[in-house]
């Protein structure tokens, strides 16, 4: 491993402002890194103007299994840049850390995967089978890059998948799913002194909230790793002024699902609840889902999970935990592929993602490169 080269690649990625958009600029930079290696098959999959996924495929010396590697190209907004001590798109570095928006979530993990592939190509390392790197758009706003690649069949041959999201260098094998929903209520405006002449849209939202809260209270099973089903109302808007009955109102909610309560059956129950409420003439509710992401089932005893655990523990010189993740990742889309495969979420990041002065520890970043390479070569022996 050329440490200076590895650090420069990450710094270069951090300098590209791919905030919920402009991922094609990151894809173009990555393509340039692989241009000198004819053995690397590089496929650009356009999602929208200025937004391109990248699929990089390496074939081994002989047939074998197919291992997927995944990282996303987008980052979240830096917010108030004056609050940052280290500019969010400068890739500043000190003795211990590299700073910048996306350093932890997850250009650090993506850069580590890129470095592994570049090293394999430069050293002409021997392996059996195929390595396929997915660099995706839109993970932070809906996983639609991973959904596009899965729909087009790029993940259909996978035997295992590594998602390089930040995991504190712990081995994650399962994670929650997400259901984001929007409920619109349409009523009738009236003077607040004569409420019977109108239909209060906010009251309709209250009826839904009470019914959904009762439904969620029935979901008492607790996943031993991920915990209980979670539901929160996170936004609400409606009304025009304090002395008028509101004609329109909206409620936004977030549900964090587990394998015990998968998305589709739960969404069907919520749809039925809204349909039942709409049978009353005073209710006119419209429910919309925004990019639901399925929970990731997994088995901590799966051979691929155990391989990762062994390699990571040996490399770091201490036992590494096998855990679950409360968030969701691109794996939610990739597992929709033609065949089932184990997934490990493992990355060098930390809890600084989405925060001011996001950073990644240099030692963790370099350790991840070593761990990824060893896992890949052992899995594809």
TrEMBL record:
Its pathway, per UniProt, is: Amino-acid biosynthesis; L-lysine biosynthesis via DAP pathway; LL-2,6-diaminopimelate from (S)-tetrahydrodipicolinate (succinylase route): step 3/3
Keywords, A to Z, come to: Amino-acid biosynthesis, Cobalt, Diaminopimelate biosynthesis, Hydrolase, Lysine biosynthesis, Metal-binding, Zinc
Names of required cofactors: Co(2+); Zn(2+)
InterPro entries assigned to the protein according to its UniProt record, in alphabetical order: ArgE/DapE (IPR010182), ArgE/DapE_CS (IPR001261), Bact_exopeptidase_dim_dom (IPR036264), Peptidase_M20 (IPR002933), Peptidase_M20_dimer (IPR011650), Peptidase_M20A (IPR050072)
Query: Does the record bear ATP-binding in its keywords?
Result: no
Residue ranges constituting the Peptidase M20 dimerisation domain according to the UniProt record: 173-278
Top enzyme category: hydrolase
Q: Which organism is it from?
A: Loigolactobacillus zhaoyuanensis
Its transmembrane ranges are: none
Pfam families per the record?
A: M20_dimer, Peptidase_M20
Query: Which superkingdom heads the taxonomic lineage of this protein's source?
Result: Bacteria
Zinc: is it a keyword of this entry?
yes
Q: Which EC number(s) does the record attach to this protein?
A: 3.5.1.18
Q: What is the lineage of its organism?
A: Bacteria, Bacillati, Bacillota, Bacilli, Lactobacillales
Protein name per Swiss-Prot or TrEMBL: Probable succinyl-diaminopimelate desuccinylase
Positions in coiled-coil regions: none
The record's similarity note reads: Belongs to the peptidase M20A family.
Q: Which reaction does it catalyse?
A: N-succinyl-(2S,6S)-2,6-diaminopimelate + H2O = (2S,6S)-2,6-diaminopimelate + succinate
């Amino acid at each position: 491993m050329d440490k200076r080269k590895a650090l420069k690649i990450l710094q270069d990625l951090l300098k590209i402002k791919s905030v919920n958009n402009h991922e094609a600029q990151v894809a173009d930079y990555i393509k340039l890194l692989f241009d000198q290696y004819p053995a690397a098959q590089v496929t650009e999959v356009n999602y929208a103007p200025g937004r391109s996924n990248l699929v990089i495929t390496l074939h081994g010396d002989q047939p074998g299994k197919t291992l997927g590697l995944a990282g996303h190209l987008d980052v979240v907004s830096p917010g108030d840049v004056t609050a940052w001590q280290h500019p969010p798109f400068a890739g500043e570095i000190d003795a211990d850390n590299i700073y910048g928006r996306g350093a932890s979530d997850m250009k650090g993990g993506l850069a580590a995967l890129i470095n592994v592939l570049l090293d394999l190509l430069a050293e002409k390392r021997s392996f059996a089978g195929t390595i396929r790197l997915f660099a995706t758009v839109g993970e932070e706003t809906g996983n639609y890059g991973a959904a596009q690649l899965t729909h087009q069949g790029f993940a259909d041959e996978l035997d295992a998948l590594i998602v390089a999201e930040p995991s504190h260098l712990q081995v994650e094998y399962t994670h929650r799913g997400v259901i984001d929903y929007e409920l619109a209520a349409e009523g009738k405006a009236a003077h607040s002194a004569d409420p019977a002449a109108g239909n209060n849209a906010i009251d309709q939202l209250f009826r839904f909230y009470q019914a959904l809260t009762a439904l969620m209270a029935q979901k008492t099973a607790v996943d031993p790793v991920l915990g209980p089903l979670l539901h929160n109302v996170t936004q609400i808007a409606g009304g025009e002024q304090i002395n008028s009955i509101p004609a329109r109102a909206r409620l936004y909610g977030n549900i964090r699902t587990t394998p015990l309560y998968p998305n589709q059956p739960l969404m069907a129950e919520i749809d039925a609840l809204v349909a039942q409420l709409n049978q009353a003439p005073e209710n006119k509710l419209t429910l919309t889902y925004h990019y639901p992401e399925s929970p990731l089932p997994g088995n901590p005893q799966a051979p691929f999970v155990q391989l990762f655990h062994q390699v990571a523990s040996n490399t770091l010189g201490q036992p590494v935990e096998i855990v679950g993740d409360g968030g969701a990742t691109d794996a939610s889309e990739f597992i929709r592929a033609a065949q089932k495969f184990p997934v490990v979420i493992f990355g060098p990041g930390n809890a600084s993602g989405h925060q001011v002065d996001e950073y990644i520890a240099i030692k963790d970043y370099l350790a991840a490169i070593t761990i990824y390479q060893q896992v890949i070569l052992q899995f594809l022996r």
